[in-house]
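Look at a sample.

——
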Amino acid sequence: MGMTTDRRTLGSDSTTSSALEVSALGLGCMGMSEFYGTRDEDEAVQTLHRALDLGVTFLDTADMYGPFTNEQLVGRAIADRRDEVQLATKFGNERLPDGTRLGINGKPEYVRSACDASLQRLGVDHIDLYYQHRVDPTVPIEETVGAMAELVQAGKVRHLGLSEASAATIRRAAATAPITALQSEYSLFTRHLEDEILPVLRELGIGLVPYSPLGRGLLTGAITSEEQLAEGDSRRTAYFPRFQGEALEANLQLVAAVRTVAERLGCTPGQLALAWVLAQADAGRPAEGLGVAPIPGTKRVRYLEENVGALQVQLGEEDLAQLERAVPRDAVRGDRYGDLTSIDGDE
């Protein structure tokens, strides 16, 4: 498999301070440490090294994954290849070492201490893209982003991002400091960003980093029943309603329809789903003109290689139309989270 040189620019070049060039496809590292079944650190490191060899250099982690262990894992894997990587991590979902969740914290002093702790765990002197993981409704966004901007001035962070922020919050944040990227859930199954958020990103010159572009694995076609998911996989819980009972059955019908289109195009369902996300930046599409760099997560080399194959899938207008008939915008059953209270705005 050849190396991909496909790149995207997050953030607008008009304010060069906010523009960050990344690989068109990133790698979400969360599942290597928590949430989606068992851990195998050796395989995770092999996957990270293979990603860099393939030109997938945009790596995404967060302090709360593990908690704390995912940053250490990523840091070890990139130790001798730091200059190849666009390294993204996040703060704001505060947890104790035993995993206890303390809630969302956007206080300026917490921003500073969280960043220092992440730099130490990652073993690096700067973070390329630092996101607020979730918006803290108790702290004005100007205060949080103001503290984040100080990290840029201090040289600890190069670029700033938000995650799951509402259109109004994005505007306020961008008025405080240059925002390079919004990382939010976006896929064939999750399209709510198209209404208010994508137009604001375009207006402000902010890039889009879609997480869960494969619908937490549903769109790969690899999941055929709830039983198939490992014990301890959070997708088996009420936290992810789309994987439960009748909702799962209905959603698997949609995946079957995606598979039909994928077979005609000679790719896998997952490759088609990723190609769809990438195509949204094309003329006349909802994310037109935006830098769009999805971060499908995997902990296995073979899935990484399959994902990279999505960059070869060319979708014409008729292909997109057929796919969107197969999966109408609001066809998916179940909320994307069982509890949406931590999501900014009135989801």
In short: Residues 64 and 216 are 18 Å apart (CA to CA). The radius of gyration is 19 Å. Residues 245-265 form the longest helix (21 residues).
